[in-house]
Amino acid sequence: RGQLLRPWVDRLTPLPDFHKTAREFTANNPSEKREESDMLRELAMGSAHAVGASHIMDVVFERLNDCKSKSWRHGSQGLKLLLHLIKKGGDWVVFRAIQESVVLIALREYRHSNQDIQGEIRGHATAACRYINNIFALRRIREYAQGEDADGIAIGFKGDPWAAAVKAAAWAMAKKDGKQPDKNSVRLRPQTITRVRMETLIDGRG
């Protein structure tokens, strides 16, 4: 009976097409059918799951790569979406941004004949790099942004089981270098964050 009813259930409760929504948000021409705020909210909630986050981030970095050869607006909108997801999206977004950090670093030196466009893209890319390279700045911005939206997603660094492990690793690195640990200045390389996360998963703590 369940197999017979399944097609009808799927028709009644279709899942959002996050890939399509992400492409619509980052398109050259702004959508006339949907508000940007509605799309951002949908994408942030969709990024809480691995599959949804993968579809969304594939589009984001496709658009960022298009920025150099096809359309600056693809890059601008892609960065705008990425920054929103870094603040209000799922943890999967952060991991993917760390993996693709080379693209973001390159966009910090983006060149365009229009100085306003150049400054906008460089500024967004610099902000994204700052968040993914500083675990404490990242945690603060995520706690603040997600605290503003009580109905938003619950996934974040606040209360996350691996946040303490990452913080401990940062302090250990500072002590190893003979420096006094400072929660406002300790930085982690992306590889370190990823390694700590994987070790946490392997140990069964995440």
UniProtKB/TrEMBL annotation:
InterPro entries: ENTH (IPR013809), ENTH_VHS (IPR008942). Coiled coil: none annotated. Pfam families: ENTH. SUPFAM superfamilies: ENTH/VHS domain. Residues 10-142 form the ENTH domain. Signal peptide: none annotated. This is ENTH domain-containing protein. It comes from Lotharella oceanica.
